[in-house]
Amino acid sequence: MPLFESENITLLAKYLDVETLRQKLVAQNIANISTPGYKRLNLRFEDCLQDALNPDKMNMETSLENHISNIPDVNKLEPFVEKDNTSETRADLNNVNLEHEMTILSANTIQYNLVMQRLTGSLQQLSYVITSGGR
User: What are the contacts of 73-76 at 24+ separation with CB within 8 A?
Assistant: First the structure.
């Protein structure tokens, strides 16, 4: 396995991509707040990740007793964008709520920063091992 493709780093990088896409969708929703008939867009990823990591759904057969196999490949997990047709709409049939979008934006910013801190920490650990580990 290449040095920078550990499961931890791959998952963190994937989650940063997801949070970036979510940020773009919120910006698009806010930009269309006055567009008649516009339906807000929502990003779904956490459900897919939770399903993939559910031990009841994993095939845990092993070729040898000490091996763990069939751990889900994070790179195969893809977020998907869905149109929100369930939220209450205004008279112009637009369902974007600015307060709701700003709440998502704030939560997304916090999550992005936390994941970035964790990724930075993982890379700093690798850097330490590479530069100082052999002493």
Answer: 74/7, 74/10, 74/11, 74/14, 75/10, 75/14
**Angle made by CA atoms 82, 75, 27, in degrees to the nearest 5:** 35
Encode pLDDT of 22-61 as tens digits.
Answer: 999 999 999 999 999 999 999 988 777 777 666 665 555 5
In this prediction the pTM is 0.74
Count the domains in the chain. 1
Q: What is the Cα–Cα distance from 123 to 4, expressed in whole angstroms?
A: 8
Question: Which domain, by its residues, includes 58?
Answer: 7-84+94-132
Ranges under pLDDT 50 in the chain: 1, 69
CA nearest neighbour of 15 among 99, 122, 95:
122
Quick check: is 26 in a domain? Answer: yes
